[in-house]
Design goal:
Helix content: 25-40%
Number of strands: 0
Radius of gyration: 15 Å
Oligomer: single chain
Structural class: mainly alpha
Largest sheet: none
Shape: globular
Order of helices and strands: HHHHH
Strand content: under 5%
Distance between the termini: 42 Å
């Protein structure tokens, strides 16, 4: 792995741990069920808000999506190119598949460098203040899924709300 990738991943891990710790009294993890390479059921039972999801994706202090991903964010300079471009991701992946990648992409690829935003499995060397807390809350996952599902290559193919 190139040194700059390692440094970027180290920064990502530190920032995501810090972001998780910023939420006092974080909720306990909700159980998830993986079916056919997806988590079909919402983590909350409440629809995600695409506007909040977009804000989370572009927030360089919370999930750090733009560290690795480019997308339709012309106002955001210097997006990453380690992960897939988010343009058209709503065409490529169903909401359940997006949800699984956010919750714990290691289910699909054990060697992924994508952080597990809603899993504590396999975490080591986590500061005491952040132990037992996911990086993102369950509703934040749902908001990001709702936003990513809107990213279509062909706007006319968007499903009706």
């Amino acid at each position: 792995m190139p040194r700059w990738v390692w440094i970027g991943c180290t920064i990502l891990a530190a920032r995501t741990a810090a972001a998780a710790g910023a939420e006092p009294g974080a909720e306990p993890l909700r159980p998830v069920t993986v079916v056919d390479r997806a988590i079909p059921a919402s983590l909350t039972g409440v629809p995600g808000d695409p506007a909040r999801g977009r804000a989370l994706v572009t927030d360089r202090t919370k999930g750090l999506c733009l560290l690795c991903h480019a997308g339709p964010f012309p106002e955001e300079p210097f997006p990453g190119n380690l992960g897939p471009d988010l343009v058209g991701v709503g065409d490529r992946l169903a909401p359940g598949a997006l949800r699984l990648r956010l919750v714990d992409g290691r289910v699909l690829n054990p060697d992924t460098i994508m952080p597990s935003y809603y899993s504590l499995a396999g975490t080591t060397r986590v500061g005491a203040a952040w132990r037992g807390r996911p990086v993102l809350a369950s509703q934040e996952i749902e908001d990001i899924v709702a936003f990513l599902a809107t990213l279509r290559e062909t706007p006319s193919e968007r499903p009706a709300p």
